[in-house]
Amino acid sequence: MPFVVLPDDPLSAAAGERAGDIVGDQVLRYPSGRPWIISTPDAQWHEIASPPGARIVSTTPPATALDIDRLTGNPIDHHSWNSVAGHISAHAHFIGQGPGGTRFQGNLSGSCRFFWALDNNLPLVSDSPAVLRAMTGAAPDLTSVALSLAKAMPIQPFAHRTMWSGITAVGIGRWLRLPPGGVPSTHRWWSPTGGPALPVAEAAAGVRDALRDVLRAQSRSAGLVTADLSGGLDSTSICYALDDLGRRFRAFRTSSTSPWNDETGRARAAAADLGVELVEFPPLSETSTAFTLDARADPVELAEGPVVWSASRGYLDVLAPAVAATGSRVHFTGLGGDELFDVVPGVYRSVWAERGLGALGVLRRHQLSGKFPLRPFASGVADRRSYAAHLRSMVAAVAAGRAARRADSYSWFPPPVLPGWLTAEGRALVVGALEEAAAGDPEPLGADPTAHQVVESISYQGQILRQFGVVFAGTGITWQAPFTDRQVVEAALRAPVSARLDAREDKRLLAEAVAPFMPRALFAKRDRGDFTADIYAEHRRRRHDLVAGFATARLADLGLVDPHRLLPHLDSPALADVGLLELERVVGAERWLRAIDNETRSTG
User: Fold this and answer.
1) Nearest residue to 434 (alpha-carbon basis) of 392, 404, 386
2) How far is it, in rounded angstroms, from Cα 566 to Cα 419?
3) Enclosing H/E stretch for 455
């Protein structure tokens, strides 16, 4: 539901007319009569009862009644509005307007997110970078393009960046303030869950309750719903939870060509146990589009930048209409489950901080099984540097062109790596952005590296979820990922970090949470399903076209990539998943730039 919000300003009349041409003709107005929110004709705005002088709207109604009588002040700067904004924005866009201006707040994952830009110094706010691009004529931001080519860049410092010069996203856990006659600014509303860790059983009960609440809220107006059932633990848990709630659903999955991926059998067994229909599509290798240079020129999709889920794009192109054909308007995915319940790079340092000498056994076991060099592992686990100090250290290493210490792999985020085929100009753009991010004293998103990385990664998955909704808006499907919901995230972060390192079960906290309605045996330690073989299969099929296509690369024209260094990698990537993922990023950026060129030619 694209919309744009204008300030209560005499200059907004002309912008309002242009916004009406771009977005639609439904207008909510200020008391002055000037346009406030302009949206599509079918948009449904829900006005929330507000104190005198204030006005609150959201894109969906609140799940429960709100105690508005307790609110004082205005929605811009009074602390009493924080809980209401947080409650409403959990599943919707919150917009609160009063004498002090307007407050905009999305959710923690970013699946509901705001963007803003200046149009002749007039601030515009929207849920869609496509709308802001159309209104401002924004051009691609070369620094953002260069950042998209690097490996292991930290997410939080660049969460506010978009691929367009002059269009800014509201960062993770932040809200946007638009004061009368002023410039937009962002302020943090998210704070890490405090207090000592709960026992695993108690934390699991909290996760279970939160998951049930979220699933009820996300499917409350739906009849039949649909869900992924890949055979992995996350999507399977969602399906068992839906069954526990008595929801009618159908399940969908794609498969892998890898003979070591056993998730097909697991998915079929779960579907039989649940008594639900399972629709299966061809292997991902047959639909993957990670390495095609065919450039689509849809302006809404282009505005999102190079999507990071291009390998799944072909599958989603057949999944979305199949889901819509069932009559379902809500589709559930397991996105976020790995980040919420599994091992993340900072978990070892967090476990050492949590248990001290009592963690030696489990840390030694993981060091041996992961074949981590002992000395760097021990040094990294014992590191006590703050987030800001770690960020500054990583920036200094990248700027100097030196390799980071192995020990830094176990800290707040893994060391960033610039590919060898990035030009000096491209490297300078990345270093400049990193140095800007490290200025001041940036704060982490969690009290320890694990909590920080969980929230960062959840926001990454939320971006994917939002893009699903944007790209497949025509199907009428709402894509949901319960594990990215703030309520579930906060419940999971109350568990001991060491629960992620259980010797007998995968994702022990999740296993405990769904134990009342899902077979516990499914969580026994095993090899994980993996689609790397499918991505390699697509690369083998397309590599000659890639080499030929990059002979005239737009990335090279822009001075970001050295084609002579890149071409050998395009033909024969390193025999590791990391090498292939680096190529997927550069192909995605090239495809996106070509799509912009195609759009320019088609519009004259």
Assistant:
1) 392
2) 9
3) helix 449-471
Name, in order, each residue with C-beta under 8 angstroms of 564's C-beta and a sequence gap of 6 or more. Answer: none
Q: Are 408 and 391 in contact (CB under 8 A)?
A: no
Cβ-Cβ contacts under 8 Å for 64 (sequence gap 6 or more): 87
Q: What are the CA-CA distances from residue 282 to residues 154, 192, 456 (Å)?
A: 34, 42, 32
Q: What is the SS3 assignment for 72?
A: coil
Largest alpha-carbon pair distance within the chain? 68
Cβ atoms of residues 445 and 192 within 8 Å: yes
Q: What is the pLDDT of residue 576?
A: 44
Do residues 331 and 227 make contact, with C-beta atoms less than 8 angstroms apart?
A: yes
- Which range (54-63, 260-269, 495-504) has the least confidence? 54-63
For residues 487 and 497, what is the distance between their CA atoms, to the nearest angstrom? 18
Q: Kindly provide the b/e burial profile for residues 163-191, where b requires at least 16 CB atoms within 10 angstroms of the residue's own CB.
A: bbebbbbbbbbbbbbbeeeeebebeeebe
Instruction: Provide the pLDDT confidence category of residue 577 given band limits of 50, 70 and 90.
Output: very low
**Residues 1, 590: Cα–Cα separation, whole Å:** 29
For the chain, give the percent of residues with pLDDT over 90.
72
Sheet with 35-39, strands from edge to edge, namely 26-29, 35-39, 3-5, 122-126, 115-119, 167-169
Average confidence (pLDDT) over 329-352: 96
Distance CA 308, CA 317 (A): 15
The tens digit of pLDDT for each residue in 387-436 reads 999 999 999 999 999 988 999 999 999 999 999 999 999 999 999 999 99
**pTM for the complete prediction?**
0.94
The counts of H helices and E strands in the chain are: 23, 17
What are the helix (H) ranges across 342-423? Answer: 347-355, 360-369, 374-382, 387-400
Taking alpha carbons only, the member of 256, 260, 262, 310 closest to residue 284 is 256
> pLDDT tens, 308-317?
899 899 999 9
HEC states along 173-212?
Answer: CEEEEECCCCCCEEEECCCCCCCCCCCHHHHHHHHHHHHH
Q: Average pLDDT of 40-50?
A: 84
Inform me whether the pLDDT recorded for 74 exceeds 70.
no
